[in-house]
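Thread: Modeling a multi-component assembly for a lab meeting

Hi all, long-time lurker, first post. My supervisor asked me to bring a structural picture of a complex we are working on to next week's group meeting, and I have zero experience with this. I have the sequence lines for every component (196 residues in total). Could someone generate the structure of the whole assembly? Inputs are pasted exactly as I received them:
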Amino acid sequence: MAGNERLYIVTYDIGDQKRWRRVFKVMEAYGRWLQFSVFQCRLTPRRRAALGARLDGIIKPSEDHVLIIDIGPADAVDPRVESLGRPFESIKREAVVV
Amino acid sequence: MAGNERLYIVTYDIGDQKRWRRVFKVMEAYGRWLQFSVFQCRLTPRRRAALGARLDGIIKPSEDHVLIIDIGPADAVDPRVESLGRPFESIKREAVVV
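Re: Modeling a multi-component assembly
Sure thing. I ran the full set together rather than chain by chain. Output:
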């Protein structure tokens, strides 16, 4: 199962505080917090699709914007991310499903 | 020259408004705005290194955090980015140097 997991960076601009909190809660269930509106997720194709559907159900396209960036296989030794200010550690195993 | 350009997503959390504006101005010179604290850049290795050095010279590591995410060769047909809310278009040519 873990072999088909990929790492994703998810960033979002949400125009409304209530929707922002809903997006934040969904993201907490799927990944690990990195920055104010940025999460890292390690996902199978199935969970990746589920996350997209969850977010799609929350956001208002005219006011909100979400980017889901695939940065490669989860167990690649070196995801191509440079972190300035504090270290970046890729998620080593699947996040616990809440 | 263009053949060795790669696309990057840069996200930042900056603890101070003055430094945030300085980071924003540098990012405007190197890429294209995507979200509140998120830019897309198309960079040669030389400009990629220059950007890292510029940001490194501005941020305060104890309060700020910058992620520079390599999403692949700039001319790849399909950068693996899904955008919800509005379309994502990868930069088709090198940004004008300001």
